[in-house]
Structure formats: structure tokens, C-alpha cells
From TrEMBL:
One of its GO terms (cellular component) is nucleus. The lineage of its organism: Eukaryota, Viridiplantae, Streptophyta, Embryophyta, Tracheophyta. Residues 128-184 form the HTH myb-type domain. This is HTH myb-type domain-containing protein. SUPFAM superfamilies: Homeodomain-like. Pfam families: Myb_DNA-binding. Residues 75-134 are annotated as: Disordered.
Length: 298
DNA sequence: CTCCTGTGGCTAGCTTAATT
DNA sequence: AATTAAGCTAGCCACAGGAG
């Protein structure tokens, strides 16, 4: 991203997102920025504004297609070349590694029988891969969040068509299902990292925000299939991320509906809010990122 | 004491059936 | 037809226990 983002810790990002969720209004006034700043330790109003601008740029870049999107087609993703379109697996969280580096490309080469009910004669290699599924990348997840913001919960078809074009509506719906389940269980202890921990398109900048994940790898070195786990530093696993208890990092207690946020900024995530039909306010805004202009990919 | 292996928990992604 | 809910399979990881 940009140099400024490096100075932001994960905690600060979350605090910022929470503050935005609470204090942001359509016409962001100076007093609102002051309130937001009061909730983000070690950050000035100017820094917050600057950070906001950076986020805005990110979203615009994504919307404009500057962020590469995988070219594999839906579930037929043809094995090896499908993942790692970010180009590098270094310096990312283990979750991302699993998504983009480890499993993504690894699936095609395992040569196992993933069917479970098919046996060896069950199907072709391609079919096995199809059944196996392609892990969602962070980029896809962020696009999903963008689409969720724009179309709201339920319109998986539009999200699939306009945002996560590499996934079918069914896949998007399935992903969303797991996503919300995860959000609703955020207050539990013993959480392992997941791609679903990313609740905003900026929240997972791998270069600046290593997730407090399990990175420990007792078996990784010995297990060829665990190559992806070798990378990250051995952070003790099952350490609950900060701000997780009860309230969580999402600005509101899980399961508590939150009114749809301002049109441009986040209110909360993980607390689905039912919108009136035809209302395209972000029902659940994936945390603090600005609403992108209505540009479509296709 | 160190290393290796087995086991259980957790998560991701998918399919299918049920529902709207 | 689209969405949701339930269930299944597979992979990753940490931990416990045994072998050296």
C-alpha cells in the first residue's frame, strides 16, 4: 500500500474502524474526526484523514480493476495457475499463504482422492479438483465485501456478477454463509485465523497487519503438504486477538443488529441488518472503507 | 531430552435438500 | 429461480504420548 499504512498496527486499524462505524456521517465534520481520533490511540486527526484517503484510493483501485483478479473461470478453475496472482507469498499471514500459495496451487498436485464417496474410479483429476474447491483468496474476499457493501446481503447474484466475478452466486452465498457464521462466533475463544477475519478491504493488508495466527508449525517441516505453514513466524497459537472479547472488533456486539451505516462509511460488520427492498444502503458495511463509485468490472 | 507420530479440534469449500 | 440451511469431506494445526 503506502508508506503511511505501515505505521498502522492492527489494533489501530480496528480502533479506527470502530470509531468510523460509530462517528462517521455523510458530511464528515471536524468534530467527528475529533471523536474518531479520540478512539484511536496515537493517531492525530490529520493522520486519520490521511489514512482515510489511502483507503479510498485502495477501493478505487480495486474498483478500477487495478487489482488483479484471477482469471480462472468459476469452479472449473484449472488447477495450478489459478492462485497466487498476487505474485508473492512472502510476508503474508499464514492464512493468506494457505489461500494463495499453499493450498491454492497445491490442490492440483496432491493426487489424493478427495471425493470421499467416489473412490479412485470416481472421477477425473479435473473433477476431483472441482470437488475440492478453490480457496478464497484475500482479494476475492475483499471484492466480496465490496459487493456486500454495495448490494447488501442476499443479492449474491449481483455480487458475483459485478464484484467476485471469479465465483458463482452459489459460491458467493456459501462463502457469505460461512463468513457470517464466523462473525457471529467471534467472541469465542480459541479462534484460529481465517480469511473471514478480514472484515474490511483494508483490514488485511498483509504487509502491515499480520494476523495473530497460529503460525506455529510443529508438523510443517515434516509434512510436505504443509509447506505453506513454514513461512510465518511462530506466534503462539490460540491467542485471542485484541478487542475480541464480547464486543469484538466490529463495533457492536455480535448478533446485535446495527442500523445501516452512513452511505459512505462502515457501521459494523457481522451484524446483518435487513434492508427494505430496493434499498441499496450498505446494510452491513465491511468496516471502514469508503464507498466506492459505482463502477463495475464488466 | 529430543524427535516423531497419532489424534482431535477447527475451518474451508462444496453439494444437496428445503424454503421463499 | 434464487436463497438458505444442513451436512459432508479434506486440510491445517497444536498437543500428547511413545520411542530413541
Amino acid at each position: 500500500m503506502s508508506p503511511a499504512s505501515i505505521e498502522w498496527s492492527r489494533e489501530e486499524e480496528k480502533a479506527f474502524e470502530n470509531a468510523i462505524a460509530i462517528h462517521w456521517t455523510d458530511d464528515s465534520k471536524e468534530q467527528n474526526w475529533s471523536k474518531i481520533a479520540s478512539m484511536v490511540p496515537n493517531k492525530t486527526v490529520e493522520e486519520l484523514k490521511q489514512h482515510y484517503e489511502l483507503l479510498l484510493e485502495d477501493v478505487i483501485a480495486i474498483e478500477a480493476g487495478k487489482v488483479p483478479v484471477p482469471k480462472y473461470v468459476g469452479e472449473e478453475a484449472s488447477s495450478s495457475s489459478t492462485k497466487d496472482f498476487h505474485g508473492s507469498c512472502g510476508g503474508v499471514t499464514s492464512t493468506e499463504k494457505r489461500s494463495n500459495c499453499g493450498l491454492g496451487s497445491g490442490y492440483s498436485g496432491l493426487g489424493q482422492d478427495p471425493n470421499g464417496h467416489g473412490g479412485k474410479g470416481g472421477g477425473s483429476r479435473a473433477e476431483q479438483e472441482r470437488r475440492k474447491g478453490i480457496p478464497w483468496t484475500e482479494e476475492e474476499h475483499r471484492l466480496f465485501l465490496l459487493g456486500l457493501d454495495k448490494f447488501g446481503k442476499g443479492d449474491w447474484r449481483s455480487i458475483s456478477r459485478n464484484f467476485v466475478i471469479s465465483r458463482t452466486p452459489t459460491q458467493v452465498a456459501s462463502h457469505a454463509q460461512k463468513y457470517f457464521i464466523r462473525l457471529n462466533s467471534m467472541n469465542r475463544d480459541r479462534r484460529r485465523s481465517s480469511i473471514h477475519d478480514i472484515t474490511s478491504i483494508n483490514g488485511g493488508d498483509p504487509s502491515t497487519q499480520p494476523l495473530p495466527i497460529t503460525g506455529h508449525q510443529t508438523n510443517a517441516a515434516a509434512n510436505p503438504t504443509n509447506m505453506a505453514a513454514i513461512g510465518p513466524p511462530p506466534i503462539k497459537h490460540r491467542i485471542p486477538p485484541p478487542n475480541m472479547a464480547g464486543l469484538g472488533m466490529y463495533g457492536a456486539p455480535m448478533g446485535h443488529p446495527v442500523a445501516a451505516g452512513p452511505s459512505h462509511m462502515a457501521s459494523a460488520v457481522g451484524t446483518p441488518v435487513m434492508l427494505t427492498p430496493g434499498h441499496h444502503h450498505p446494510y452491513v458495511v465491511p468496516l471502514a472503507y469508503p464507498m466506492a463509485p459505482p463502477t463495475m468490472h464488466q
